[in-house]
Amino acid sequence: MKSLDQIAAGLQGYDPQAMACDDVHRFLQQLVTPVTQPVELPLLRTLGKVLASDVESPLDVPPHDNSAMDGYAFAGAQLAPKGTPLVLRVVGTALAGKAWSGTVATGECVKIMTGAIMPSGLDTVVPQELVTTSANSISIPVGVLAAGDNRRLRGEDLARGRAALQKGELLTPARLGLAASLGLKTLTVFRPLRVAYFSTGDEILSLGDAPREGAVFDSNRYTVFGLLTRLGCEVLDLGVVRDDPALLEAAFLDAADRADAIITSGGVSVGEADFTKVLMQQLGDVAFWRIAMRPGRPMAVGRIFKAKSAHDARNTSVSSYENNSKLKDPGDCGAIVFGLPGNPVAVMVTFLAFVRPALLQMMGAKATDQPLLQARSTETIRKKPGRTEYQRVWVSTAADGRLEVCSTGNQGSGVLRSMAEANGLLVLGHTQGNVAVGDTVNVMMFDGAI
Ligand code: AMP
Ligand code: MG
């Protein structure tokens, strides 16, 4: 395991007092290690988890050639262009769920339902709305169909033995459905991450506390809870911790013992940091950064080493992880700490920008980046090159069908209202300057993340 100094030494121009967002990403990519323990879970409990091994298709999907439409099945070779409609006699009906076993001669067809097995020798289906029927026969107009149309081929979705799902893929609704279509009742996923979090500050009230002068209710534990839960992490709420070294030390040690990662908020700004810094350095390995971004400039990142006890993962069966307070990966020796700033919007922005991709990497997910949407700015925005700015916006479809963004108002780093009213964050990159009305800008959409 590399020390923070070793990671820093490998990064060109590393400067903790002026970290570009890209440097933060690069640092975190080297700092975190993915969990390795597999757990076999019933399919319905795997949504949002990460596959721990490749899944090969044990069967052909669909298992037979079948009809894609309600209509009539026949041998397509009879469609040879004759310039006259093709008239066929209906000799039976093929229903979904059972094979039709009669024989079909030239000049004949079988009425067929969607999903029904194609009777042998037939390769084409004419949808019922395209034909005219009379007595016991149908007539197919010229030019409406080609041989092979409306037939789904055996194995066209997934052929037996082919890779259907891959290790490191996040289980989405579509992937759950795909696994079910293969008849799989369980999947082997990486055990979920357990993430502990607490807020710091003498002025922070928990819900239910009596309001008092100078105090504010804790919102960070609620946004962090939501962000972590959406990511599929198991959460451990350790409450509010006063600005007191002994209490903070106890909270860090408790969290490191029970969780893979610890998220704190507050106490990392200049001044306060001196005190947290000494404490965290005693317990582990920590770097304090000033990041060239807005909001969210101060942030601490590191590891707490002195966990009270480490559970031995090697003796744990794959299905009993829930009974353990924490499973340690081999070689693991503590918890990763993300010390986020205190301001409520800065917490959310630093989480989305840095913590989310790092946690996805720890979860074993192979894709950790989130593609940005392009939209048109409806406003001029003043922006200094040399830092990354995140602005709370509402993205909507303009009259011309293109996406456009409007600010949701006051962009102060403590103003949660404009965050609550936003559906995305406008991301103005490090080198970007002012934005004019009509310029194309990048947006990180919240959907899926928060
Ligand atoms: P700090 O980084 O501790 O100096 O906090 C910066 C600002 O964020 C201060 O105005 C704090 O009162 C506020 N703040 C810190 N933690 C929280 C929290 N958990 N909920 C709401 N506001 C907070
Ligand atoms: Mg504070």
Provide an overview of this structure.
This protein folds into 4 domains: 4-35 and 193-362, MoaB/Mog-like domain (Molybdenum Cofactor Biosythetic Enzyme, Chain A), CATH 3.40.980.10; 39-60 and 168-190, Molybdopterin biosynthesis moea protein, domain 2, CATH 3.90.105.10; 66-152, Molybdopterin biosynthesis moeA protein, domain 3; 373-445, MoeA, C-terminal, domain IV (Beta-clip, Beta Barrel), CATH 2.40.340. It is 20% helix and 28% strand. The chain contains 8 helices and 26 strands. A hairpin with a 2-residue loop joins strand 8 and strand 9. Helix 2 packs across helix 7, helix 4 (220-230) packs parallel to helix 7 and helix 5 crosses helix 6 (272-283). The protein is elongated, with a radius of gyration of 30 Å. Mean pLDDT is 91; it is low at 308-328.
Percent range for β-strand residues: 25-35%
The tally of helices reads: 8
- Spatial arrangement of strands, main beta sheet: 7-4-6-5-9-8
Q: Report the average pLDDT across residues.
A: 91
DSSP, total strands: 26
Question: CATH superfamily of the largest domain, called what?
Answer: MoaB/Mog-like domain
Bound molecules: adenosine monophosphate, magnesium ion
Largest sheet: 6 strands, mixed
From the N-terminal CA to the C-terminal CA, the straight-line distance is 32 Å
* CATH architecture annotation name of the largest domain: 3-Layer(aba) Sandwich
> In one word, what is the shape?
elongated
**Computed structural class:** alpha/beta
What is the top-level CATH class of the largest domain? Alpha Beta
Uncertain runs are 308-328
Tell me the number of structural domains.
Answer: 4
Per the CATH scheme, the topology name of the largest domain is Molybdenum Cofactor Biosythetic Enzyme, Chain A
Nearest-angstrom radius of gyration? 30 Å
